Amino acid sequence: MALIEPKILKGFRDFLPQAESERKRVQGILEKTFESFGFVPIDTPVLEYTEVLLGKGGGETDKQMYRFRDNGGRDVALRFDLTVPFARFMAAHFHDLYVPFKRYHIAKVFRGENSQRGRYREFTQCDFDTVGVDCASADFEILLVMRESFMRLGVTNIEIRLSHRGIFNRMLESLGLGSSSAAVLRAVDKIKKTGEEEVRSSLREIAGESGASRILDFIRPEASSEETLKKIASLAGGEAEDTLRLSAIFGWAGALGIGDSFTLDPSITRGLDYYTGIVYETFLSDIPAIGSVCSGGRYNDLASLYTRERLPGVGSSIGLDRLLAAMEELGKKTPASSGAAALVFCEDEALLADYHKAASHLRSEGLCAEVYPEAHKQARQFAYAEKKGILFGVFALQAERVTLRDLSTRENLENLSLPEAAALIKKRLSRV
Amino acid sequence: MALIEPKILKGFRDFLPQAESERKRVQGILEKTFESFGFVPIDTPVLEYTEVLLGKGGGETDKQMYRFRDNGGRDVALRFDLTVPFARFMAAHFHDLYVPFKRYHIAKVFRGENSQRGRYREFTQCDFDTVGVDCASADFEILLVMRESFMRLGVTNIEIRLSHRGIFNRMLESLGLGSSSAAVLRAVDKIKKTGEEEVRSSLREIAGESGASRILDFIRPEASSEETLKKIASLAGGEAEDTLRLSAIFGWAGALGIGDSFTLDPSITRGLDYYTGIVYETFLSDIPAIGSVCSGGRYNDLASLYTRERLPGVGSSIGLDRLLAAMEELGKKTPASSGAAALVFCEDEALLADYHKAASHLRSEGLCAEVYPEAHKQARQFAYAEKKGILFGVFALQAERVTLRDLSTRENLENLSLPEAAALIKKRLSRV
């Protein structure tokens, strides 16, 4: 019989145990962090009506959608992000919920784009948003969640660069460029990639020579966030709710002793029309080239396409794949140990009941333990333990006494009761 | 502007925070259980080549597939189970892995079937399999994992009914019915639904009057598993590797003191051709009508469509949706508390830095804590806490002294330092 080639689609991936364990570990830390701030999980379908996902349509994502007719002839598509489904979700369930509603959602999304290096067609987003309130404290909390997430992952050297679209817009209006704001934003958004001169030449076409200079002056950070804030307030026509909000946020960060993590950077604009208030991106100081690993901002109304309920919100999104790549580069991965802490060796199949009893006991003490299922020669069982990163071998003797072998030091600890063996394993694990 | 109706596809679901929290809790317990036996996680794409998913094709699932052409013209489909992707995965990665390879995979699958009550088009399967070995100990371990999973979920009153397809086949061959085995299996598989007389009449057409009686005698359990085993061994032509394997499994279960969870039931056949050895289903004694919540068996060769490597295996699958429905019926859900343990009330926005400091401190002690973001009136903040199941209110006063309010007893504990407040919350939480 001819074999079918076990191939997978370009831009899609299998995750082998070590990679998947690490993904689960990181995802677990993120979930715990989000929950520690009172964010609650939701989930939505992978497949939705195209009409719902398209919204008003016209974006880049439209062409990238996996869109088709299902067996019932419905026009359906795979979700391409978690924001549109969240908007639809809020419209559908608003009356069963409460505000402020703080949700997180970690799930796969799908985009059929040209898959370059590091670009996947199936990838995981970790979104967290607070909707139903428009205030500085909700903005600040999202920034706290971002910072705390990286801290708990051991990625401590981060810089969250933030700005405010309202101040930017006021500056543009003072230049008579209010109607060109989308074009200006797109031009400015490229500054980290293309450099100032390229941006200046784009801006010159939109805003003229002096307008371009004024905008470039606006987006250039000063020596401190305070000075930057003072400058952009003045270029925007003075203080207002937007500058006061940034001022409050920086003040609170200082009061909590975490001011160092945040920098006011008016060149952060987040290209999208969608944002109306604070906007931010997160950079890893040790590998800036990887780009922003977590970004977002405040929007005026989440679900206006689906409901007349007004839902202002603020949120952020972590790209899990980029984060994991960054952590690998930073050496923040966990050791290769996946699977069980202890392997009960099988030397005589007549003793399998005893082997399973020994493993059961270790599990009842909260450890991971498995039995090698057949009496293969020891070398093969050792190779299995090594391949899985198993740390201890248990050789079950008679009368519930065992020999424990520390597979890293090759030391044998003989004639132990099962509780003694469990205690020793725990003690040594706590030292790792 | 006309609104878009925020509707979702039939057979697909949103999960609101309480439901999603419970799903995550149960999934977490399953993952921990699987890992405690040395099973490791993998993941595969939601979307695959149709050719790969169809395999040799011809099954019911073919018609149910969400199949379409992607933007590159490829014939692709959403996975309809986790077994076919696992087979493809093993063929693709065999040389990077080891045997026995024990994997678990918890993920969504998609079937466009008629969605009756309780039938979803998007649902979650929890699969665990051991491949690369064919021995009693591996079979037994899968049964242990099944039992332990339910125990750790608090679902203790279970009955795992098992049998062996090899013994069944020997019995059929002794009746000269070896070539009709698929038809016989399909008929027998219906006995729990339709009753004996219906099955007898189906069998009569395949096997004649005496054949039907012989088969019905074979599948009727005796008073004890020992007696049943003796009977089926004799009807199948005597003891062989298959009966010895069942005997070993029941012996080990007895030695581990968990024999009560397992019953030999020769009417368990698991309709599918796929299975060749032990087969089993799991019933909840308190709600038998819900049917099997976890089933599976041993198969001869997992990945023969994709590789010449022979991969015998044994595995099991838990339907998460049915399990959650069962747990709800059994009252095994966790209390409604989702989200934060403590809400710092906002009474004066000038004090927001202090509120955030208080919440940060509680989080640094491992608690969940959030700040109400605006100085709304107390009643509204209390309503928010109640809606979210938050247990404690924190009223931040001056100089880092707070009042703690137990929202269930309405008791106030005044003038506490933050560490004192954290200690009190932990103490009271441990009592819940």
Keywords:
2 domains, Rossmann fold, BirA Bifunctional Protein, domain 2, elongated, 16 strands, 432 residues, homodimer, alpha+beta, 15 helices
Could you outline the blueprint of secondary structure elements for this entry?
Two copies of one chain form a homodimer.
Chain A: H1 17-36, E1 40-41, E2 47-49, H2 50-54, H3 60-64, E3 67-69, E4 75-78, H4 83-93, E5 101-110, E6 122-131, H5 136-152, E7 158-164, H6 165-174, H7 181-189, H8 191-194, H9 196-219, H10 225-235, H11 241-255, E8 262-264, E9 275-284, E10 294-299, E11 313-319, H12 320-329, E12 342-344, H13 352-364, E13 369-371, H14 378-388, E14 392-396, E15 401-406, E16 411-417, H15 418-431
Parallel strand pairs in A: 1-5, 7-8, 12-13, 12-14
Antiparallel strand pairs in A: 2-4, 3-4, 5-6, 6-11, 7-9, 9-10, 10-11, 14-15, 15-16
Helix pairs in contact in A: 1-5, 5-11, 7-9, 10-11
Please tell me about this protein's structure.
- Two copies of one chain form a homodimer.
- Chain A is built from 15 helices and 16 strands.
- The first copy, chain A, is of the alpha+beta class and 432 residues long.
- Chain A folds into two domains: 17-329, Bira Bifunctional Protein, Domain 2 (BirA Bifunctional Protein, domain 2, 2-Layer Sandwich); 342-431, Anticodon-binding domain (Rossmann fold, 3-Layer(aba) Sandwich), CATH 3.40.50.
- An eight-stranded mixed β-sheet of chain A has the order 1-5-6-11-10-9-7-8. In chain A, strands 13-12-14-15-16 form a five-stranded mixed β-sheet. In chain A, strands 2-4-3 form a three-stranded antiparallel β-sheet.
- The longest helix of chain A has 24 residues, at 196-219.
- The first copy, chain A, is elongated.
- The two termini of chain A are 50 Å apart.
- The mean pLDDT of chain A is 92.
- At the A-B interface, helix 1, strand 1, strand 2, helix 4 and strand 5 of A face helix 1, strand 1, strand 2, helix 4 and strand 5 of B.
